[in-house]
Amino acid sequence: HAKVSGGACIRFFNEDMQQEFNQRQLLLDALKSAITHEQLTLHYQPQYLHNGEGPARCIGFEALLRWYDDEHGQVSPADFIPLAESNGLMSQLHFVVMNQVMADMDNLSTCFDHDDWIVAINVSASQLRASDFLSDLKHRVATEPRLARHLELEVTESVLIEDIDGIAQLMREISSIGIQFALDDFGTGYSSLIYLKLLPLRRLKIDQGFVKDLLSDRSDEAIVKTVIALADGLGLETIAEGVETKAQQQRLVAMGCKQLQGYYLGRPEPLAHWRKD
Ligand code: C2E
Ligand code: MG
Ligand code: MG
Ligand code: MG
Q: Is the CB of 64 under 6 A from ligand 1?
């Protein structure tokens, strides 16, 4: 058929594209409705510190958005974050996350037997660059002063591509209210070492891509070793993401990366799962 009538072939292709477009539009409408009706939730994944002697100690949580839709089922952030990003919805998602974290502060604090815990949220470039980001954050800290002690913002290197000086200045202002920064997915982006010097960072998150084959791939091992040494030299902490096995954990701790996050230690779960009382 395609041979005799190229037109039909093209029309078929276009229908395919039309269908994909419609699917995306449906998902987008569903996402907008989920935001309006407060149907997005947070799961919390624990972060642990291994100090050599004694058991690992839970030092914090990373908050991760979850969206269950009746029509589409569980939609991965890998699908809806880019959708929100390309449709100007990221500021709204940031509000959803901040509102939920603030509502969870009491319950979060009951998960720890110390007061140095961290709750980390992910902040994308468009969120951080929103004109009201800083004023909103200051307002929230005035309402909930514990944020200044416990909140950490995870940014990725993509945040830094444009206007590094402006972003560095903004990050310094945010740091001055007590809120700290982690550099997420470190090593996968457009890293330039100058960022590590210019930006007020508390810690580097070693991307799970380097952890996955750490025990079998000598390049990954060399990269992780180097990142840890670099962070040490700069006075930054390191935390490894995507730790799925005991062997990975042991190797990372032996290499000097004492903070760990991953399925081996705990999956992202609703906060009720982690409460002690
Ligand atoms: P991320 O910030 O790097 O988060 C880590 C991702 O790795 C999470 O996926 C987490 O569930 C997953 N993970 C944790 N431990 C393991 C492990 O041991 N093995 C494997 N294979 N995966 C592990 P998730 O929740 O699907 O989120 C994906 C990405 O979506 C996040 O990557 C983050 O970039 C983005 N995201 C999630 N929530 C938010 C949010 O509230 N705001 C923004 N801006 N982005 C978010
Ligand atoms: Mg993250
Ligand atoms: Mg990451
Ligand atoms: Mg990631």
A: yes
